[in-house]
Structures are given as structure tokens and as C-alpha cells.
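INFO batch 0412 | record 1 of 1 | parsing
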Amino acid sequence: MGERRASLVCIKSTNSTIMRTMRPNTYPKLTVSRSELARVAAGARPLVDVATAASILGWDRTRTAKQMARWSSQGYLRRVRRGTYAIVPIAAMAQEQVIADPWVLIGTAFRQAYVAGWSAAEHWDLTEQIFNTLLVCTTDRVRRTRLSVAGTELRARHVPLSWFFGTQVEWRESSRLLVSDVHKTILDLCADPSLGGGIQHVMHCLRAYLKRSDTNIEQLLGYAKRLNIPAAFKRLGFLSEVAKGPIRIIEECRREVTVGLAALDPSLPSPKVSKRWQLRLPAAWERLLRDD
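INFO prediction complete | emitting C-alpha cells
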């Protein structure tokens, strides 16, 4: 009675009923094994792909992929992208974000990228603001600039390869990644204020930079010349002048001012004009940039 019986299928014909016995499923069952999951987690934390897991378990890729998909459906893994998963700590299984350090996702989510903008500003203590979205600059052709990976919100800014300099290597949980150094961070913010969350926050970061002991004006200006974006010179010079920054920055940026108006902050209505800096300014720019 307790034995599993083969399934019987009745097939009716015009003359008789033919009884045919179906063979039981001969495919090997994939059982959820906590010990096997623990082996995978120990060997590949915090991210693991099918190839790595197959190597750890000694299984073929097909069996491994099926087991990982099952672990994912049960909440033990969180899919990062096809074939790659994040190990979910037991304490975080009910949470949306399961990666303690979102920076480790960068190498998986992008072929070539560096931490930039407000995320780099946080890293270098240029701001006390806390941003919940990790911002990266990448050469990848991204179809969406905002995406969610394993519960972490990412914002990607496509940039040309010429932007890839002035970076430092960071190691996070055995993951190697790049972050713009403190000087390049300021230049990126001046090249595109949206990377800093707007010109007001860019000004805040610049003031913090100018007060640092490791401020390097020549490095900053050298980076600006290498990037060679006229609007970046205009914004850097204008903001430095408003902040009563080093004359060296102001004078050098003035030499690089070109004909043609650029917006101080393209996201804001800008009815005013600074002829000196060839910049369109918001109506309340003085209040916007004041040192609170």
C-alpha cells in the first residue's frame, strides 16, 4: 500500500479499452540541500554564477542551473542577472535589498564602469547627504538609466571612453571595482550637474573639496583639460568664483571660456546670463549657491 504505484492511463478505442502503463519519471529529482547551498555560499559569497556553483558542487551546468533557480524561488538566492545570483543571508530573506554592500554588484551589472557622482562624493566625504541610489558612469550602451539589481537601485550614466581616467581601485568583498578619485569626482559634477543631484549640491561638494588637506588644484585643472568639456570649465570657474576659491582655478577656467551659452544647471529654468562665464543662470542662483 505504501509503495508508489505506476500511473495507469486508460485509452478508449472503438473496440476495446487498452490499458497502458506509463513509466514513472526517470529524471533525477533536485532536492533542496542546505548543506550544498552552504558550500556554494562559502565558496562564492556574496555573488555566484552557474559556472562557479557547478565547479563547487561537481555538477553539470544544467543540473546546477535548475537547482539555483529552485533556491531562488525559495528565497535563498536573489537573481542579479541571467545565470548570476546574490546569496541571501537568513536575516535578510524578508528584505528587498539583500546585498550589504551594493558596490559589489557593479562588476556583474556592467562590463566597464566606475562609481561616480553623488556616490563617489559620499565615498570621499564631500557630502553628508545620503543617497539610496548607487550611481555609476559606464561605457555600456544602457537601455535604461535606472535599474534595480537584487533589490539595489542603480543609476547608470553612459559616457565615452575618454571619461575613464582619474579613478582608483577599490576592493569590496573580493570584488575589484573603480571609483573616481576626489579630483575627478569634482570635475564629473561640473561636467554634468545631474550626477551630483543638481548644482546646489555640486556647489556644496566643491566647497568641501576646497577645504580638504589633499586638494590639488593642478591635478583638478589637468583633469579638466584632459576631459576638455567647455561647460565643465565654465561651471568650475563660476562656482569657484562664487565660493571665493583659489584665483588659480578662476583664472585658468577664464582662459578656457568659449563662445556659446551653457546652462549652469540644465534641469532648471535659467532666464539670467553671466556674460563673463557664458552661462545661463537660474533666477535665484545667488540664494541657490549661498553657503548655509
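INFO post-check: The longest helix spans residues 61-73.
INFO record closed
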